Amino acid sequence: MYDLLKELRVVEGSAFVAAPTCGLYLAQMGAEVIRFDQIGGGPDFRRWPLAENGSSLYWEGLNKGKKSIALNLSSPEGRQIAQRLATAPDPAGGRDAGLFVTNFPVDGFLSYETLQKLRSDLICVRVMGWADGSQGMDYTINAALGLPQMTGPADDPRPVNHVLAAWDLLTGAYCAFTLVSALLARMRTGEGREIRAPLSDIGAATMANLGFAAETQLAGQQRPRMGNDIFGAFGRDFRTGDGQTLMLLAITPKQWSKALEVLDLSGEVAALEAELGISFAVDEGLRFTHRARLYPLFERAFAGRTAAELAPAFDAGGVTWGAYQPMEAALADPRLYKDNPAFETVRHPSGLSYPAPGAMATIPQDVRGRVRPAPRLGENTDEILAEVLDMSAGEIGRLHDAGVVAGADGR
Amino acid sequence: MYDLLKELRVVEGSAFVAAPTCGLYLAQMGAEVIRFDQIGGGPDFRRWPLAENGSSLYWEGLNKGKKSIALNLSSPEGRQIAQRLATAPDPAGGRDAGLFVTNFPVDGFLSYETLQKLRSDLICVRVMGWADGSQGMDYTINAALGLPQMTGPADDPRPVNHVLAAWDLLTGAYCAFTLVSALLARMRTGEGREIRAPLSDIGAATMANLGFAAETQLAGQQRPRMGNDIFGAFGRDFRTGDGQTLMLLAITPKQWSKALEVLDLSGEVAALEAELGISFAVDEGLRFTHRARLYPLFERAFAGRTAAELAPAFDAGGVTWGAYQPMEAALADPRLYKDNPAFETVRHPSGLSYPAPGAMATIPQDVRGRVRPAPRLGENTDEILAEVLDMSAGEIGRLHDAGVVAGADGR
């Protein structure tokens, strides 16, 4: 972790991916992030993949570096504690609180209207499904956007969902951005605000930002599926002579000329250019339009060599390429996991020790602090009640006895 | 747009998706974002999809609300102007500059070392491919992470690339977050920094954050591909009697019970639970383990009804579901595009008028400002040279004559 945000205290009431990654990114940049959960765990506490002892590798991956307090959120007193945490005053020393990240419903006990009565300058970033408040998750929003029908081999009409929860992830990072932006504004004006980030709007806006929406509007129908072909330029997966699959792409003129050079295709491509009366060098779109003519040349060139021959030649020649590798190979890849200084082996709440990443960006001039594992559920309950809500030991004991709060032992 | 960041001036030297979306998100939250490009356009200026007149719908989607200056970046003087823009002093009125977003190479003329000599407290957020500086793009990083082999129907071994550039998008939003975070830190300490955001680290960290990496390490191999089945819970696409495809999912106990209720499957599922001696209600993982037994029940239930029957029943019953729809249907969907208040029809540099989104989040208490289209390339060249670099009209004229800068007319 880094300490850019060490003056922030953020409260997170969340589940699943989007809101938890927002808190994760904030924590890994130095913010104190307090996540509250239902005693026994919220709806994401047992999400797969699981360790052998049943602990969720997913939960402990998404909550690294946070503090945990467990509350009975179906009791009025537990809900009140959640409200008080979200709206607690700034701690001493010029630190900023009143920063709340959540995916709780817009009109429930954690509504902005309710919370603002407790702290008028609250900043609340709220992940939502559909913008109208109705249920939506990454899977259903993605289906509504048209992407699964554009994804996968052209010869198979079945819709293909993405495995990576891309909308959740984008939403989480965008929420972290909006939270810090709203804090900057509050530092200047004193005003808080609610920021609503529905997956549906983030999906619709992104498809428009990338040109998909305008393209569909102009064409009257969405882009047809085309397997792994890179739209509007040159690129695809190719098989080497020894049966490896490599991704090759050429968008810029330089990427194109380098690929032709190393694959020894300049002559054949020049002949094709002469035949068609066009130049592939300048206009990447022509490489796409005529890809059915180009692919056989590349297929033959790949088939005539092994991956072991091509890899160093591509690297030496400055070609933009990559091998498809299963994740077990990725774990052994020094560039991704094995020797990656962003990762550190730590012991997690599951009891397992394995490498985990800190902040996803690197600041060369700053020292990367230790990677902090996720808390056990309720690990920081007492400390948070005492420090943030200024409760006495007696009061905290009463809350435990009444089942309103619980520690890491579940009581 | 909103004005949370109206006190920021950000300079962007970028191409493709990640760095431009970072600038886009900043601009749509009110920052002044100045993008410099090569005269005639950088490598992304003609990226597909294109309008009929050849304008890039992609470029004009990703650069909304920015200002544009066109420079000859292969000339020493053009490069010097880029350096001076990135490091220009704060404008009057307490506004913050010295904020630079780029995907230019780490060791080129826009290296942090070079720029820091011109402004010691510069904040530079740099999108990279691989962390070691070697070439990598969304497509090749994704191939290296193992995702394409986990994606798509289980009966087809071909790797499936994602169509949505998810790593670029996540990187762009994360960069916007780190830029504002670094500004907060600079406001407190006066120190700037370089923040490097390689797609490779963002990919590797994300796969670890979600538990994929630990899962693979424990199992010795990555998750097998399983089509559209939701891993570790219940969910998949199902065909209705009239041939529509709907996504249904049930992660929480409530989502599960609602789905059974509306599909009238409670009895059959209870019989299966009795036979297996388990409860699907409590443990979503069991629904996944025994999905081969559950799917036929759901397939029959869907096949026995039309989408028109199921949709209102699902909505009324609180089921988490969604229809797969092509993008042309999404455009007509009032929840996504048609009546979405985040969108506004504006005239774009292509000359076309079509709906475009502002900020992806909504702030109920603030007024959404007008959606601003992308600039024409070089549209703001003179204004930027005069205002940011304090150049005289004579000096600006000389730069045009020498071909160092160009306006929207390309000269």
Task: Spell out the key features of this protein.
411 residues, elongated, three-stranded antiparallel β-sheet, alpha/beta, homodimer, seven-stranded mixed β-sheet, 12 strands, 18 helices
Please characterize this protein's 3D structure.
- Two copies of one chain form a homodimer.
- The first copy, chain A, is an alpha/beta fold and 411 residues long.
- In chain A, helix 5 runs parallel beside helix 8.
- The model of chain A has no long low-confidence stretch (mean pLDDT 97).
- In chain A, the strands form three sheets. A seven-stranded mixed sheet of chain A has the order 6-5-4-1-2-3-12, with helices on both faces.
- In chain A, helix 4 links the parallel strand 4 and strand 5.
- At the A-B interface, helix 1, helix 2, helix 5, helix 6 and helix 7 of A face helix 1, helix 2, helix 5, helix 6 and helix 7 of B.
Please, what is the average pLDDT of chain A? Answer: 97
Beta-strand content of chain A: 15-25%
Can you write the helix and strand succession of chain A as a string? EHEHEHEHEHHHEHHEEHHHHHEHHEEHHE
Q: Per the principal axes of the C-alpha atoms, what is the gross shape of chain A?
A: elongated
Helical/strand content category of chain A: alpha/beta
Characterize the largest beta sheet of chain A: strand count, sense, and whether it forms a barrel: 7 strands, mixed
Total beta strands of chain A: 12
Largest interface: A-B, 153 and 152 residues
Gyration radius of chain A (Cα, Å) is 26 Å
Low-confidence regions of chain A? none
Helix content of chain A: 40-55%
Number of helices of chain A: 18
Assembly state of the chains shown: homodimer
Strand order of the largest sheet of chain A: 6-5-4-1-2-3-12
Amino-to-carboxy terminus distance of chain A = 31 Å
